[in-house]
C-alpha cells in the first residue's frame, strides 16, 4: 500500500506521529508537506493528495489540519475521493468497512497524537466489507459521473 500524507501548519505534529507509525508498520508513504510552521492554505495540500489518490498513483491519503474539516471538504471535491473526517476508533473501522474511505482526515486541535495514531492504525488495516455497501458507493460514483 502506498500512502500520500500531508498537513497544513495546524497538523504537523500528528503528521510526524503518523509517519512514525507507518515506518513501524512498514507502510510506504510520501510526505507532501507542509514544510514550515508559518500559516499555509489547506486546499494547497488537500487537493494534490486527493488527486494523487484519485488517479491511482497512491492507494490512500492521510490529511491533517487544525480541525480536519477544511482538509476533508477540499479532498471530497475531487472525483473518486471518499474522505472521512474521523476522531474516534469506532468510526475509523466503520468508514473503511462501510464507506471504503480512501482518505483519512484528522484535526490536531481536536485530538492528541496518541488517539490519532490508534485511529490511523485501525484505518490503515481495516478492509472494505463490500456486499450491501458496494451499491451505496456505486450510487455516489454514478452521481459524480453525471456531473
Ligand atoms: C488553520 O488555522 C485552520 O483553519 C485549518 O488548520 C483547519 O482547521 C481548517 O479547516
Characterise this structure.
The protein is an alpha/beta fold. It has a single domain (2-146), classed as Sugar-phosphate isomerase, RpiB/LacA/LacB (Ribose 5-phosphate Isomerase B, Chain: A). The protein is 48% helix and 16% strand. It is built from 6 helices and 5 strands, in the order βαβαβαβαβαα. It has helices at residues 12-25, 43-54, 69-75, 89-97, 113-125, 132-146, and strands at residues 2-7, 28-31, 60-65, 83-85, 103-107. A 5-stranded parallel sheet has the order 2-1-3-5-4, with helices on both faces. Helix 1 (12-25) links the parallel strand 1 (2-7) and strand 2. Helix 1 (12-25) packs across helix 5 (113-125), helix 2 packs across helix 3 (69-75) and helix 4 (89-97) packs parallel to helix 5 (113-125). The longest helix is centred in the last third of the chain and has 15 residues, at 132-146. Bound molecules: D-ribose. The site of D-ribose has 8 residues, from helix 3. D-ribose (RB5) binds next to helix 3.
Order of helices and strands: EHEHEHEHEHH
Runs in which pLDDT lies below 50 for 5 or more consecutive residues are none
Structural domain count: 1
Major sheet summary line: 5 strands, parallel
How helix-rich are the residues, as a percent range? 40-55%
**CATH architecture term:** 3-Layer(aba) Sandwich
Strand content: 15-25%
Number-wise, the strands total 5
Amino acid at each position: 500500500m502506498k500512502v500520500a500524507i500531508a498537513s497544513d501548519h495546524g497538523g504537523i505534529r500528528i503528521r510526524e506521529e503518523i509517519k512514525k507509525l507507518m515506518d513501524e508498520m512498514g507502510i510506504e508513504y510520501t510526505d507532501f508537506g507542509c514544510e514550515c510552521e508559518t500559516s499555509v492554505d489547506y486546499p494547497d495540500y488537500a487537493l494534490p493528495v486527493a488527486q494523487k489518490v484519485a488517479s491511482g498513483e497512491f492507494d490512500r491519503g492521510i490529511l491533517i489540519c487544525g480541525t480536519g474539516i477544511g482538509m476533508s471538504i477540499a479532498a471530497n471535491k475531487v472525483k473518486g475521493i471518499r474522505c472521512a473526517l474521523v476522531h474516534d476508533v469506532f468510526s475509523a473501522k466503520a468508514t473503511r468497512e462501510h464507506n471504503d474511505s480512501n482518505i483519512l482526515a484528522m484535526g490536531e486541535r481536536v485530538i492528541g497524537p496518541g488517539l490519532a495514531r490508534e485511529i490511523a492504525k485501525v484505518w490503515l488495516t481495516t478492509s472494505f466489507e463490500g456486499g450491501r455497501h458496494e451499491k451505496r458507493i456505486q450510487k455516489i460514483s454514478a452521481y459524480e459521473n453525471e456531473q
